[in-house]
Amino acid sequence: MKQFGFGGTDLDRCLQKFAAAHFSVHNHFNKERQLYSRFNFKLNRAAALSEWRQLLSV
Questions:
Q1: CA-CA distance, 11 to 49, in Å (whole number)?
Q2: Residue 26, CA distances (Å) to 10, 20, 22, 36, 47 in order
Q3: d(C-alpha 54, C-alpha 56), whole Å
Q4: Is the pTM of this model over 0.70?
Q5: What is the pLDDT of residues 4-27, one digit of tens each?
Q6: DSSP per residue, 5-52
Q7: What's the confidence (pLDDT) of residue 1?
Q8: Are 16 and 23 in contact (CB under 8 A)?
Q9: Alpha-carbon dihedral 39, 47, 27, 18, rounded to 10 degrees
């Protein structure tokens, strides 16, 4: 993989863009988001990102 000067890889950059777009759309259509605490949202977000990284590392 090609390395960037800031220390990230193409995959890291791609994952970051995907996560930003995905959560932007998800939050727009998720009308129940106010029912979740910020703590639970952060836990779910971290778990989802971890799962994506595991899936893409295979």
A1: 13
A2: 24, 10, 6, 14, 15
A3: 6
A4: no
A5: 555 567 888 888 998 888 888 877
A6: TTS-BHHHHHHHHHHHHHHHHHHHH-TTGGGS-HHHHHHHHHHHHHHH
A7: 47
A8: no
A9: 140
